[in-house]
Amino acid sequence: xxxxxxxxxxxxxxxxxxxxxxxxxxxxxxxxxxxxxxxxxxxxxxxxxx
Length: 50
What we know:
The protein has one helix at residues 26-36; strands at residues 2-10, 16-23, 42-48. The chain has 1 helix and 3 strands. It has one domain (2-48). By secondary structure, the chain is α+β, with helices and mostly antiparallel strands.
């Protein structure tokens, strides 16, 4: 398992957030992130790879 760290900032109020996801690969990590986050719109978005 690898740990991916998703950083994001939303549109509108510009709420910042960091989400750590443990997954086998980047595709799984991305899917888990979007399933679990309640945010739908992003202004900035980047990922730290393991």
